[in-house]
Specification:
Elements: E1 4-6, E2 21-24, E3 49-59, E4 62-71, H1 73-76, E5 79-80, E6 83-85, E7 98-101, E8 130-131, E9 134-135, H2 152-165, E10 170-171, H3 173-176, H4 180-202, H5 210-215, H6 221-238, E11 242-246, E12 251-254, H7 257-279, E13 288-291, H8 292-300, H9 311-321, E14 328-332, E15 335-338
Antiparallel strand pairs: 1-4, 2-3, 3-4, 4-5, 6-7, 8-9, 10-12, 11-12, 13-15, 14-15
Organism: Pneumocystis jirovecii (strain RU7)
Protein name: CST complex subunit Stn1 N-terminal domain-containing protein
InterPro entries: NA-bd_OB-fold (IPR012340)
Length: 340
């Protein structure tokens, strides 16, 4: 969730540490950052205490906070887990926040077991289906598997499964940390690495740089958890299983019907236009034929965030989306023919 809220300099919150600060809504415009709550009392009143996790930034010479997670407390029973885009320029746009995907549930995170359960499914993924090379719905909790299986690879499977299963179209590290399973899994990996580091230090294998000693670097579990989740997301991006849509803020996105359908339709329209131009000169066959590989290559060139998108993932989504487009029929071996 991204928004802007004025806070005092004494309250330090940042996305890396994951610390939570309590803020009080003192001005009427601050309420515009809080989504509508499905409650009889409507929006939060001035003076309501909210819990915020986010990053500070400078904005017109004042301290601001870039809101990533909001907790409304026991009375309101709501957690905003989507991405909220509030206009920074109050003079030009509406004071109401704009939603890319609000995903506001009617229960708190604690009532949902600390996960994102309660969101509606709109990404078109089914439990047990293949998402790239990973089968969703087959990921075990870190609470039940052996300590030897507390690996980064299993964390990648868990993060991807939870994000897709709960229809998180766009998310940040802090949004993922709302899920207790992901938080616990990252903590297990951090503690396992910590124990190994301490053992290496006892054995004389651990080296500490002079810069760390001079700066007085202290170990923080919360910071290490954020780094672990961020490293996990970076590997998923490099594997083409998720997208890094905003590098400045650290916003990631899943790949699904919601963002692939438009690109696939664009590829088909572009191929149809070129086919019609060539047909006028009798340079093509009677029917337009396009392959899944052609679509995948065009999607890769759509933007930097799509450059590493997984071919298997895109091909699986093409097989679901293409039959719903008018006139397209599957001809086998990854080929689609247009009958019009």
């Amino acid at each position: 969730m991204r928004g802007v809220c004025a806070v005092s300099d004494g309250q330090a919150v940042d996305d890396a540490s994951g610390r939570i600060a309590e803020l009080v809504l003192k001005e009427d415009q601050h309420r515009q950052l809080v989504p509508d709550v499905p409650d009889a009392e409507g929006q939060l009143e001035i003076g309501t205490r909210i819990r915020v996790r986010g990053t500070f930034q400078r904005w017109h010479g004042r301290r601001q906070i870039q809101v990533i997670k909001l907790g409304m407390g026991e009375r309101m029973h709501a957690v905003a887990a989507g991405l909220l885009t509030a206009s920074a320029d109050r003079g030009r746009g509406s004071k109401r926040p704009k939603y890319r995907d609000s995903g506001v549930g009617g229960a708190s995170a604690a009532e949902r077991g600390g996960s994102f359960k309660g969101m509606d499914s709109r990404c078109g993924h089914e439990a047990g289906m293949m998402y790239g090379s990973i089968r969703l719905g087959e990921v075990e909790s870190f609470r039940t598997i052996k300590e030897e299986e507390h690996t980064m690879q299993n964390l990648e499977r868990l993060v991807l499964n939870r994000a897709v299963e709960n229809s998180l179209r766009e998310f940040t590290v802090s949004v993922l940390r709302v899920d207790r399973e992901i938080e616990y899994a990252a903590k297990c990996i951090v503690m396992r690495g910590r124990q190994k580091s301490e053992q290496d230090q006892v054995d004389g294998k651990n080296r500490v740089s002079a810069s760390e000693v001079s700066m007085g670097t202290s170990w923080s579990q919360s910071i290490e958890i954020c780094r672990t989740i961020r490293s996990c997301l970076r590997k998923l991006v490099n594997s083409g299983l998720i997208l890094h849509v905003d590098r400045a803020v650290g916003v990631y996105a899943t790949v699904g019907d919601w963002n692939l359908r438009r690109l696939i339709r664009h590829c088909c329209r572009d191929a149809l236009y070129k086919w019609k131009c060539s047909k006028k000169r009798d340079l093509v066959k009677e029917r337009l034929v396009i392959t899944s590989k052609d679509i995948w290559l065009k999607i890769r060139n759509h933007g930097d965030e799509w450059r590493h998108v997984n071919k298997t993932l895109v091909t699986n989504m093409i097989s679901k989306i293409m039959p719903t487009l008018s006139g397209w029929y599957y001809a086998g071996k990854g080929r689609w023919i247009l009958y019009k």
